[in-house]
């Protein structure tokens, strides 16, 4: 084997340097740039994926909360109906009065009174009975699905007789509500 001359060694070095430069410029650098761009895209996609996963979890929580709120709204609609339905209410109150052996002297529904979000429907009652039956009646109407409040209760004692076991006369007002 013969020894390479300095010119040949220089030419090989120049060719090697040119090959290295060409490799760097046309292969390594473009691939490195493409890798950087793809890594950036991957990072963005992972960030979007994480954001979407969090939104999906929040959506599940919000859907569950919405179902609870819907149930509460239905419950409130039963307690605060959108219609008067006074005939049914009067029948229910009358049945409860009869159940507790309370005698009705006067039963007067009044005109509804509109408020901001609901309307009040007052009902005046004058009844006779005994104290415990009256208390049980008030407890029963307090358990109705529909909201009924009792106020202005005036109790007057009555002497008991053989004809009437009623020992108390009561004047009271009931208020029920209607949604708007």
Question: Helices and strands in order, then pairings?
Answer:
Elements lengths: L5 H74 L6 H14 L3 E7 L3 E2 L3 E12 L1 H12 L5 E10 L10 E12 L1
Antiparallel strand pairs: 1-3, 2-3, 3-5, 4-5
Helix pairs in contact: 2-3
Radius of gyration: 44 Å
Second-tier CATH architecture of the largest domain: 2-Layer Sandwich
Task: Please report the total strand number as a whole number.
Answer: 5
**DSSP helical segment count:** 3
Q: Going by CATH, what is the homologous superfamily of the largest domain?
A: Ribosomal protein S6/Translation elongation factor EF1B
The main β sheet shows up as: 5 strands, antiparallel
Structural class by sheet pairing and helices = alpha+beta
Integer count of domains: 2
Strand content: 15-25%
- From the N-terminal CA to the C-terminal CA, the straight-line distance is 109 Å
Mean pLDDT: 87
* Unreliable runs: none
Q: N-to-C SSE series? A: HHEEEHEE
Secondary structure: helix percent: 55-70%
CATH topology of the largest domain: Alpha-Beta Plaits
Walkthrough of the structure:
With 180 residues, the protein is an alpha+beta fold. The protein has two domains: 1-79; 86-179, Ribosomal protein S6/Translation elongation factor EF1B (Alpha-Beta Plaits), CATH 3.30.70. It contains three helices and five strands. It has helices spanning 6-79, 86-99, 131-142, and strands at 103-109, 113-114, 118-129, 148-157, 168-179. Strands 1, 2, 3, 4 and 5 form a five-stranded antiparallel β-sheet that branches. A hairpin with a 3-residue loop joins strand 2 and strand 3 (118-129). Helix 2 packs antiparallel against helix 3. It is rod-shaped, with a radius of gyration of 44 Å. The N and C termini lie far apart (109 Å). The relative contact order is 0.11.
């Amino acid at each position: 084997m013969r020894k390479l001359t300095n010119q040949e060694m220089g030419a090989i070095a120049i060719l090697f340097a040119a090959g290295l430069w060409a490799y760097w410029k046309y292969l390594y650098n473009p691939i490195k740039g493409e890798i950087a761009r793809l890594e950036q895209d991957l990072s963005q996609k992972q960030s979007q994926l994480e954001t979407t996963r969090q939104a999906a979890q929040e959506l599940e929580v919000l859907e569950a909360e919405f179902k609870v709120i819907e149930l509460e709204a239905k419950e409130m609609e039963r307690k605060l109906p959108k219609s008067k339905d006074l005939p049914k209410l009067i029948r229910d109150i009358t049945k409860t009065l009869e159940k507790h052996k309370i005698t009705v002297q006067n039963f007067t529904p009044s005109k509804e009174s509109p408020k901001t979000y609901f309307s009040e429907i007052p009902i005046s009652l004058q009844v006779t009975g005994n104290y415990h039956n009256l208390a049980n009646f008030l407890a029963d109407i307090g358990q109705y699905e529909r909201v009924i409040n009792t106020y202005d209760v005036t109790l007057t004692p009555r002497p008991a007789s053989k004809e009437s076991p009623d020992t108390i006369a009561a004047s009271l007002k009931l208020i029920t509500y209607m949604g708007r």
